[in-house]
């Protein structure tokens, strides 16, 4: 199957990129952070915890489903990379061509951005960006208009995809595949979650007034979402990716897949503790939780050489993130 995607899969984009001014490459090195896994999960967690009914009829269900969508996207990416196992472009290998005018502190940051190991197809940043921003545009359906949300999602996902080519850690085909996989994952995961817009006979975003819940208020497409099936699918796909990577002798991909298993399973367990209609969190509750879960995430990646520890830390972090909206009511009930 690796023959379907060749190691030499460029179509001349490197020539164009090499002709760009250094300052442009530096700017795109910063843009690529918009789809770093840590950034996307922090963004989605903040939306899940703090969003009000001004952005979605059921903001907790919308937010948890967005997290599940991106978890599925990373699971598909892990499976694709383990399956095709093709290298990144030569530009992703050391030494890095760091602009001489960058300050010392930024030089280290820049080098970390333009050097990348692991496999290159499909692009995880392009897949995750398309999934995250596409899911947010669809699920936070009371924010702006559908056209403005769609335009923002396309611009952000496209900018991230372009950045991966400009800093030469991916070929063009890698990011195009990532964008397509991300978009398909959004549709599939939302179908699993019960989004009526992706079910037969469901209303589209421009189909006119939605049905009401009997009280005259519009429940919107997020009212009955259940992210559990999408979380479980992500865990299953990650388990398959781990098996493929282990059989092929790719230990780094086994760890990445293990993190995917933990994220999917942790999300499903965390959602069992949530009713789905909780109020937004206060900063008093969320800030300490963000510090704890952030420390667990950092620890999970820092201890990537120990797969059981990494999986355990990731699972606990995700359970806390997803279950946190239920904490105030549980404490009050004690």
From TrEMBL:
Coiled coil: none annotated. Residues 206-218 have a biased composition (Low complexity). Residues 202-221 are annotated as: Disordered. InterPro entries: PAP2/HPO, PAP2/HPO_sf. It comes from the Archaea. SUPFAM superfamilies: Acid phosphatase/Vanadium-dependent haloperoxidase. The keyword Signal does not apply. Keywords: Membrane, Transmembrane, Transmembrane helix. Residues 65-190 form the Phosphatidic acid phosphatase type 2/haloperoxidase domain. This is Phosphatase PAP2 family protein. It comes from Halorubrum ejinorense.
């Amino acid at each position: 199957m690796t023959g379907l995607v060749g190691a030499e899969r460029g179509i001349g984009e490197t020539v164009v990129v090499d002709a760009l001014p250094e300052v442009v490459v530096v700017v795109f090195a910063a843009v690529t952070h918009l789809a770093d896994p840590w950034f996307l999960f922090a963004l989605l967690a903040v939306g899940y915890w703090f969003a009000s009914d001004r952005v979605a009829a059921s903001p907790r269900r919308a937010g948890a489903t967005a997290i599940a969508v991106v978890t599925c996207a990373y699971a598909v990416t892990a499976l694709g990379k383990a399956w095709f196992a093709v290298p990144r472009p030569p530009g992703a290998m050391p030494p890095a061509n760091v602009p001489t005018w960058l300050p010392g502190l930024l030089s280290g940051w820049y080098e970390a951005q333009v050097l990348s190991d692991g496999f290159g197809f499909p692009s995880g940043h392009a897949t995750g960006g398309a999934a995250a921003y596409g899911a947010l545009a669809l699920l936070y359906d009371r924010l702006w208009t559908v056209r403005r949300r769609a335009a923002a999602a396309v611009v952000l996902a496209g900018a991230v995809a372009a950045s991966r080519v400009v800093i030469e850690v991916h070929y063009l085909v890698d990011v195009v595949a990532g964008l397509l996989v991300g978009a398909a994952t959004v549709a599939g995961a939302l179908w699993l979650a019960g989004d009526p817009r992706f079910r037969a006979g469901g209303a589209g975003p421009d189909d006119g007034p939605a049905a009401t819940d009997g009280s005259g208020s519009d429940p919107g497409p997020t009212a009955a979402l259940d992210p559990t099936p999408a979380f479980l699918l992500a865990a299953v796909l990650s388990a398959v990716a781990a098996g493929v990577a282990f059989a092929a002798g790719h230990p780094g991909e086994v760890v990445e897949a293990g993190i995917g298993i933990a994220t999917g399973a942790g999300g499903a367990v965390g959602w069992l503790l949530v009713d789905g209609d909780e109020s937004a969190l206060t900063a008093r509750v969320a800030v300490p939780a963000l510090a704890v879960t952030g420390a667990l995430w950092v620890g999970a990646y820092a201890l990537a050489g120990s797969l059981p520890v990494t999986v355990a830390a990731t699972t606990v972090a995700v359970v806390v993130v997803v279950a946190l909206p239920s904490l105030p009511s549980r404490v009050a009930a004690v």
